[in-house]
Write a structure and sequence with these properties.
Layout lengths: L1 E5 L4 H14 L3 E5 L8 H7 L7 E5 L2 H8 L4 E5 L6 E2 L9 E5 L8 H6 L2 E4 L11 H14 L3
Helix pairs in contact: 1-2, 1-5
Length: about 150
């Protein structure tokens, strides 16, 4: 599995996601658009050195990045949309590229349209979503456990 961060605003969320990637054995992460890079001191403080064990690529466009990966990966958006399926009901057909979106607006509409699938984490409380790094951790743990 690889990870694509779509315009994540918080450097702390990026660092947390990088640390989770390392812990789960995910080795490739794309930081797209305005997502802070590994030269950001807050990213580095939160990732605790995890960025050193990852292939981190910074790209200006999530759309172009996803478009370039569609042949090799099943690109899956983690999103609360009408078309999203419960992540526990999802079975990948090939290696997954998981797209995680902006803290406020989620995965960009243009990116959602070209993804192969949209998955969501069902919520049971009054809030309709989780913090992006927490949601990523849950989804990534589930998806990586399918192949272990």
């Amino acid at each position: 599995m690889i990870v694509i961060l779509d315009n994540i605003r918080s450097a702390q969320n990026v660092g947390s996601i990088l640390r989770t990637c390392d812990g789960l054995g995910i080795r490739e992460v794309y930081l797209c658009g305005i997502t802070p890079g590994i030269d950001d001191r807050k990213v580095l403080k939160t990732s605790l050195g995890a960025e050193k064990s990852l292939k981190v690529l910074e790209t200006p466009s999530t759309f172009d990045t996803v478009k370039g990966l569609l042949d090799k990966y099943e690109v899956v958006a983690l999103e609360l949309s009408k078309g999203a399926v419960d992540i526990k009901e999802y079975t990948p057909r090939k290696e997954v590229a998981l797209v995680v979106g902006n803290e406020v607006s989620g995965v960009s509409d243009d990116v959602q349209k070209i993804c192969n699938k949209e998955v969501m984490i069902p919520m049971k409380g009054t809030k309709e979503s989780l913090n992006v790094s927490v949601a990523f951790g849950i989804a990534a743990f589930y998806l990586t456990s399918l192949h272990s």
